[in-house]
Design brief:
Layout (H helix, E strand, L loop, with lengths): L5 H11 L6 H9 L4 E10 L3 E13 L2 E9 L8 H15 L4 E7 L3 H10 L2 E10 L4 E8 L4 H6 L3
Parallel strand pairs: 3-4
Antiparallel strand pairs: 1-2, 2-3, 4-6, 5-6
Length: 156
């Protein structure tokens, strides 16, 4: 992700989540946070060239990869893009020294939970009433090992 991507990324975030990040947060991740791994996935569009189809932000803290957000444009879902983006992000995190990964997901987001299960994430805890828009719980998920062979198998 670059600063030039932030407007599109923010619009994607607003369209995807009831509690989107402010645009300044993406600017911070790209330009000021040395522990951030902000990524986009692009698709070829016949009309305008390459278009951003998804976003992923990972924070690298010591030997941990914390997934801050991941979203795919609604019109481009069910194409395996989230899986691809997450594999690439975790592989990059591993190359930077991360050994484990963590994230929070809404209890009701079963589609995302299924994606994370494919990676081997397990529920390690609950943050009650974490999401302020509806007081929904967040599930705390952990991937205990960033096994690069296993991650690469997910791309097949």
């Amino acid at each position: 992700m670059t600063l030039n991507d932030v407007n599109v990324v923010h619009a994607l975030d607003v369209a995807s989540f009831s509690l989107p990040w402010p645009e300044r947060a993406y600017k911070f991740e790209v330009s000021q946070n040395p522990n951030s791994l902000p990524l986009v996935i692009e698709l070829k569009d016949d009309k305008s060239g390459w278009v951003i189809a998804g976003v992923l932000v990972i924070w690298l803290i010591l030997d941990e990869a914390h997934i801050g957000t991941i979203a795919i444009d609604a019109g481009k879902r069910r194409l395996g893009l989230a899986k691809r983006l997450l594999v690439e992000g975790l592989l990059m995190s591993s190359s930077e020294g991360a050994k484990t990964a963590y994230l929070e997901v809404r209890r009701g987001n079963l589609t995302a939970q299924e994606l994370y299960r494919q990676f081997g994430f397990t529920i390690e805890g609950i943050r009650p009433r974490y999401y302020k828009d509806n007081n929904e719980d967040a599930l705390l998920l952990t991937l205990k090992s960033l096994d690069t062979d296993r991650l690469n198998e997910l791309l097949v």
